[in-house]
Amino acid sequence: MSKFFITDIHGDKKGLELLLRQADVNLSRDQLVVGGDMINRGKDSAGVVRFIKDLMERYPGRVHALIGNHEEMMGDYIRNGDKLWLSHGGQETLAGFARVFPGQAERQAHMEWAYSLPLYFADEEYVYTHAGLDPEMPLEQQSRDILWMTEYEFYRQPREALLTLTNGRPVIHGHTPVERIYYDGVRMNCDMGSNTYSVLEERSLGIVNLTEMTYHVYRQADHRLETRRIGMI
Questions:
Q1: How far is CA 136 from CA 6, 52, 88, 127, 132, in A?
Q2: What is the per-residue pLDDT across 205-218, written as a single tens digit (0 to 9) for each?
Q3: b vs e for 15-48, b when ≥16 Cβ sit within 10 Å of the residue's Cβ?
Q4: pTM over 0.85, yes/no
Q5: Which distant-in-sequence residues (6+ apart) come within 8 Å of 5 by Cβ?
C-alpha cells in the first residue's frame, strides 16, 4: 500500500484526475487523503467535490477528505449568511454548484458534506490536516482556528511540542502556497498554489507519494506533468 496526499485543489478537477493517473493511485490498495480547500478559484469546484465524495463512498477506509478554510467559509455562508466567502470565489462556486447539481437536495447534500468534514485524520505514521495544529490543545480538541494557520505561525511551533501532540507522527498539511515541497522531519507543506496568481512563482497542483517521498506536479500554466523528489531539510 502507498500513501498519497493532495491538498488545495481549488476547483481543478482536470488536474486532480491527471495526477491520480500520473501517480498510479490504485484505491483498491492505496490510501488517499485530501487536505481541504477543494473549492473556489478554479473552474469546477462542484465537480471536484462530487468526484471526491464519490471516491470516499466507493473506497471507504481508503479515501479520507478534510475540511479547509474555504469549505469553512462556505459553511459560514450557507448556515449563517456570512458573506466573506462570496469575495473569495464563493459566487462563482455557487453558480458552478447550480450547474452541476440542478436539484436543490443534491446540491445541498454535497455542500453540507464538504463543510462538515473533519479537521484532521491520523494513521499510524502521520497526522493530516489543512493548515497546521495547535500543540497547546489535545488533538481531539483542536479549534477550527487551525484552518487559518499560516505556514509562518505553524513553523514557529516547537518541534518537540508538535511531536508530543501527535505521538511522534509528522504533520502533513497545505494552506500556504509553496513552489517546492520540503520535509523537516516534523512538517510537510504540500500546497503548490493551485489556481492562485503570482508573477514571481510557479503555481501548480501536486500529489505527494509519502511512501516513496516523491511528488507529481501538474503545472497549470503550460499543462505539463513532472515528477520530483521531496527535499529534506
A1: 27, 32, 30, 16, 12
A2: 999 999 999 999 99
A3: bbebbbebbebeeeebbbbbbbbbbbbbebbbbb
A4: yes
A5: 32, 33, 34, 35, 128, 172, 190, 207, 208, 210
